[in-house]
Each structure stands twice: as structure tokens, then as C-alpha cells.
Amino acid sequence: MGLSKNLNYAYYPGCAAKQIQKEADWSARAISEQLGLTLHDMHAATCCGAGNLQEHDLAAALAINARIFSQAEEMGMDIVTICNTCLQTFAYANHRLTREPQLRADINAVLQKAGVRPYQGTIEVKHLIWVLVEDIGVDTLKQHLKNPLNGLKVAPFYGCHAMRPNEIFAGRGGTVKGPQYLETLIDALGGDSVDYYGKDKCCGFHIMLAQEKEFLSMAGGHSLEAKHAGADVMVSPCTLCDFALGAYQSRSEKAMGVTIGLPEMNISQLVGAAFGLDAKTLGLARLHVDPTPAMTRVGMRHPA
To answer: Considering its fold, how many domains does the chain have in total?
Structure first.
């Protein structure tokens, strides 16, 4: 298990959080500091390769991920990420590497040729929301509340990459029938979760370029459904879902001929708002639909 119970983690924000969704990284770091959770940057880590490399060259994908795991293992820490796609990629690779000794030996032979420390298979990969619920605990979260959500209606959007395949994420995926981490967090912050059909469906990110019309219908459809269900804001634990649902909402509105106007933010930003962190620290000015009108009830002022 590494040093998870000491609240030290090898932090892997993912490529999106370093570029297009920087606010997710900022807010994750900010709430972690509040909670005494230490995120240790993995300076030598590369891109996880996502699904594209797995499809093109599975052995290369496993080697790249084993190299990252080896770094965390040498640090003596489990990995925590804020990207569902990185989580799925890591979880799949680690599932195989820890259960198939010969495969791990073969991959380690590749790593050793490159001068990389072999991976022993001792680390775990977690999403930040798992850490908040499992390792920090809702009672501790409640102790840090300065601006409870006061019944703010929040639509959770899980994103499919933190739920599938079931054999890897069983008991943790956050499906409608399984543990509901986002609802747990929303409730702990004093909000009301909005239930709707699309909350555990795909945001459409992966067909964004290949099938733009279908993508806009998927992403916009989820947001519109949540809005019709009474949501004041929508939250996701995934930076790519943030991008699809937030940055593309105006284009979805045009394509669908409707007005949605639903603020979408990363779950870390919502936690930070409830902790009393300011809008600048949380990067709320980067959001594509201003959440301030909905967030005034929790003492949030307009982003500077």
C-alpha cells in the first residue's frame, strides 16, 4: 500500500491538467494543502499514453506505465491522479503487472535495458476522490467546511473511465449501483445531489474530432438533462470530462438549438469553495459558464 495512510502521494495530474484544465490541478493542490495531504510531484513521469498507445503497441504502453509506477515505488508512495483516463490506463496496466509475474518480468527486462529500476508491483493507483472519501474521510472533510453548500443542487458526472472495466473498478467505480463517491462528497459539503440518467455515461470526448455532431449531442445532452433535473452546477472528477462538458457547452447549445447555461466545474473546485478558498485560488475565472450566481449562497464572490 505505500504510504497512503500517512497522506503522502506521488501526484500525477495528467496532461490535460497541465494545459487545458489547469484549474483542476490548482484546486486539487489547494484542497490537499488544507487537508494535510501532501502531493509529491513526479518530475520524471511521462504521459500515460492513454488508450491510443495501448491499441497501437500494448507492450510499449505497459513499459511506459511500469516506468511511472517504478518511480512512485522508489518514492515509497501510491499514485494519486485527477484524470479518469490516466486512472483507467494506470489501473489496467497495474492490474496486469501485479497479477502476471512473467509479464512483469518481461516488461522489467525492457526497463532495465533503458537503465530504469524494475517495478516490483507494490503500489496502488487511486483517484483523488477515493482518497478524500476513503483515506481522509467525510468527518474530517466536514471539519474543514467554512462555507457549506446550503442545499446547492449539484449534478455529479462520473465519466466512464473511472468505472470500466468492471473487473478492475468493481466496488469503486461510482456507478449508479455501486459506491457513489461524488454523492458522498456533495452530501458531506452540504449540497443536494441531483440524480439523472446520464451521470455515469460517457461525455463523448473521444469522438470529439471524429464525430463532432454526435459528441456535441452527447455532452450537451447530459448537461441539459442535469439542468432540467434542477441542477445549479455540475461537477466531474475528470479533467477531460470537464473540458467536454464545460468548454464545449456553448457549441453544444448552438448545435442542439437550446440554452443550457449550466456551470460545470471539477469536484476539487467545489470542495475548495466549501472550504472557503477564494475564486482565484480555485481558478473559477477559467470556467466557461460563470458559477458565481449559483455559488453566492456559499459566500463565493465573482472571480477576480
So the answer is: 2
Contacts 24+ apart (CB under 8 A), 97-103: 97/62, 97/65, 97/66, 97/69, 97/121, 103/62
Written as one letter, the residue type at 43 is H
Residues 123, 234 share a domain: no
- Are 143 and 289 in a shared domain? yes
130 burial via Cβ count (<10 Å: 0-12, 13-18, 19+): buried
The H or E element that residue 235 is part of is strand 233-236
What is 125-193 written as a DSSP string? EEEHHHIIIIII-HHHHHHT-SS--TT-EEEE---GGGT-SHHHHTTTS--TTS--HHHHHHHHTT-EE
Q: 247: which 3 cell numbers?
A: 468548454
State residue 304's pLDDT score. Answer: 46
Looking at residue 58, its pLDDT comes to 83
What CA–CA distances, in Å, run from 48 to 61, 108, 243, 284?
8, 17, 19, 27
What is the pTM for the complete model shown? 0.93
Average confidence score pLDDT of the chain: 91
Same domain, 159 and 284: yes
pLDDT digits (tens, 9 = 90+) for 158-209: 998 877 777 777 667 655 556 689 999 999 999 999 999 999 999 988 888 8
